[in-house]
Amino acid sequence: MSKIKVVMAKAHEGQREDPDIQREIQDVQKFFDQNDFAFEKETLYFVILRGLNLQIERKLRLAGAFVNKTGLPIEGFRADMKLNVKSDVQAQFAEVHLEIDDNFLGRLEPDEAIVLHIDIPAEGLDPAKQIYGATELAGALENLELLVKN
Q1: What is the pTM of this model?
Q2: Tens place of pLDDT for every residue, the chain, 150 residues?
Q3: For residue 13, what is the domain's CATH number?
Q4: Count of domains for the chain
Q5: Is 124 within a domain?
Q6: With contact defined as beta carbons under 8 Å apart, do 92 and 123 qualify?
């Protein structure tokens, strides 16, 4: 299995020197280095890292990594994202439509990943729970369209 390299999206290049951003990139790289993922199909994957319950805003700030396992460079994509809390049927999330173009993404090479934070409107989250771990959340990308360059 090939190793995943965490990179920055083109739109985030100006934040490269920020110590918090550097730490997050290092932490996510370590996460991929220490875990094996069964990427079975040649597609773009979304790997959930964690979710932060923003109760006042009624949102979940989802941190995740988009991983290019297509075998080709990607310069953009569209997808619908669905999310749920595995152990809580009361928690409901708005469906999210993502449109990431080449001005934002740049070029995501095969076996590279970018980290994104996505605020998703939510209802019914446990008010006592501030952070949801990766294993507590489940998500899927649907209607995925890739902008691929050969």
Answers
A1: 0.91
A2: 569 999 999 988 888 888 888 999 999 999 999 988 888 889 999 999 999 999 999 999 999 999 999 999 999 999 999 999 998 888 999 989 999 999 999 999 999 999 999 999 999 999 999 999 999 999 999 999 998 876
A3: 2.60.40
A4: 1
A5: yes
A6: yes
